[in-house]
Design goal:
CATH architecture of the largest domain: Alpha-Beta Complex
Number of helices: 7
Distance between the termini: 36 Å
Mean pLDDT: 96
Strand content: 25-35%
Strand order of the largest sheet: 6-3-4-5-7
Oligomer: single chain
Structural class: alpha/beta
CATH class of the largest domain: Alpha Beta
CATH topology of the largest domain: Quinone Oxidoreductase, Chain A, domain 1
Low-confidence stretches: none
Largest sheet: 5 strands, antiparallel
Amino acid sequence: MRAVVLREPGPVENLELKDLPLPSPKPGWVRIAVKAFGLNRSELHTRLGLADGVTFPRVPGIEAVGVVDADPSGEFTPGQQVATMMGGMGRTFDGGYAEHTVVPKNQVIPFESTLPWAVIGQVPETLQTAYGSLTTGLDLKDGQTLLIRGGTSALGFATATLAKDLGATVFATTRQPDRLETLRGHGVDHPLLDDGDVVRQVREIAPEGVDAALELVGTPTLPDTLKATRVHGTVCFTGMLSNQ
């Protein structure tokens, strides 16, 4: 099978397209014929040597979607549509940047969809991160206010969509003036220009501060995010688009 292999941490040239033997699933594992996979910032961190517990050479990729190719237990049917993510993928064992990947059975999620694989491939990690941040991280409730730092990232857009479904009023930031209307068109109630004065902008609308905030940029914006959040509010640090 063809796979992208990271020889060792370093520049992008350390990624090689290679022919590898087809992996065999051991008991409790499932082999998936990969149809699509998302590209995640954490994989950049892996390539740069910033991720813990990674051994090399390694096939990167923390998620994949495809169809079951082999399941020794017989629980999954060959050809069944499935998604998988995290759990050590692309770090402690080979991940989704390949024509086939073998993963633990307990992290295989069956689904049915007629959407194109290129669309389905964008879903697993983005939506599970957004949903987990809003529910487990922030415990966001209907009627609360939410600030998203890094609102025009893929995760920012996904979070805004889910937050609106939960009944929240959404604030979201962008550093690009021409993206403000993009945020508004995506359902964001209060698009904010990240011009260094986000706290004032937030508190002009929500004087006590927002109930919850999702930090996707990193430590450079975290102090302002905290100041824009009300007393006893909650901040969830999920991403670091700044690499800090």
